[in-house]
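Dear colleague,

Following up on Tuesday's group meeting, I ran the structure prediction for the two-component complex that the binding team flagged. I've pasted the input sequences exactly as they went in, so you can double-check that nothing got truncated or mislabelled along the way. The structure tokens for the whole assembly follow below. Feel free to forward this to whoever is handling the docking comparison.

Inputs:
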Amino acid sequence: MKSETHDNPPVAKKQRRLIGDRGDHFLSRIQGETGENLSACYQCERCTNGCPVSHYMDIKPHQVIRYVQLGWRKELLSSGTIWICLSCETCTTYCPNEVGVAETINHLRTMAAQSTIEPKEKHLAIFHRTFMEQLERFGRVNEFWLMNAYTLKPGVLREKIKSGLMKEEFFLGLDLLKKGRLHVLPQRSREIAKIKALYRLKKER
Amino acid sequence: MKLSFYPGCSLEGMANDYGRSIEAVFKRLEIELIELEDWSCCGSTAAHSLDEMMSVALPARNLAAAEKIGFDLVSPCAQCFNRLCHSQQMIQKKLFDVPWQVNGDIEVHDMTRFLATADMIKAVKDRVTRPLKGLNIVCYYGCQMVRSPRISGYTDYENPLTMDQLISAVGANAIDWSYKATCCGAGIGIARKDIQGSLTRRIYREAVRSGADAIAVSCPLCQMNLDVIQRNSRKKIVPVFYFTELIRMAFEGYGMPSWFKMHIANPIPLLRTKGLLSG
């Protein structure tokens, strides 16, 4: 963003954004990487109307496509939308122009995860990362270990105790243990070395 | 008939009652399920959220194992099915290189559609010893199994009917409703419980309103979510069955209380009033 200055106090008048600054570049990058034709979107809002979580989103699904067309990368990557999206694919299914809205949001999420931009939905990002760590460790994912590892991540436990969720989850976990739903001992995949090698490959990239 | 079988992580933990009912049903149908050699997690939701390469490579490992066996692959979990299909399409289009030997030519089925072909429904009907008369059931498919149609290959994604056909085949009354394929929010259920709760409760409310005694599901996460919101609830209890549990009940003539001890929404009183329980 060219017009950003730091000596102005952050008040009232919203800064005008230049429409189309570097837009073509960002649009063609996303189109190339996802293989979707995002220029076909004519803002009919069917995706937003179908989306089960659009009222929790700060940028609505149809706006996401518009923002990509305009090249507003930073707004997109720092939004809550990309993390809240459930990948339920309602938007993609409903789109009359076959724009892959869910695929685009998913791609933006991977971009945000690899960028230095701090995710707006921190806990969701932490959860996804914990899941991948568990997968690397055992090759399979055990719900008991996943939940415990997630709860022990910095910031999560404090938040949970504060909101009273910890108590609720503890008793739910106890209930599930009694019913034999949780398995304390994790199952492993035998060829775990190959999966670990895959992770190393990913880090080298 | 032989099939290779990819159970997925849930069937080892939270949903091992689903696994047991599948085993029993396929034994009756005389189909041998061969579990994939040393399978690993498909990385659902987390892998494709953080890294697209991983989301293709992780399921591809299981596809490679299935190709070694050579039979069609069947997956009971909707999430796994979706990821396997996605991975296979990416490999077919040669968009990603994976470190395993995969051709991408194996047939991947989800369990409901595999059992809902005309031949299989006939086989199911033949083996019913006691129809589940008087049981009103809504079928809940969830999102990952039917959508997006370009991955799952469903043509009736607006109003899927595979499970309804199976439920009708075992003699129960499948009720039509409008929340068949609405998402239950499982993907963000752990980190954003508020959102998931509101989505799941809406599905539960609609099921009650449409007059259902029970919900039939095919996805371990949907079952879990719909079950847990009924914990300590004073409202109407709507038990959430895996569809294979219902088929098993019809095959074996009656349900055993020990099959359902993992359910939180207790189905025993309902089955007792309908006369479907032994003892």
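Chain B touches chain A through 52 residues (CB under 8 Å).

Cheers,
M.
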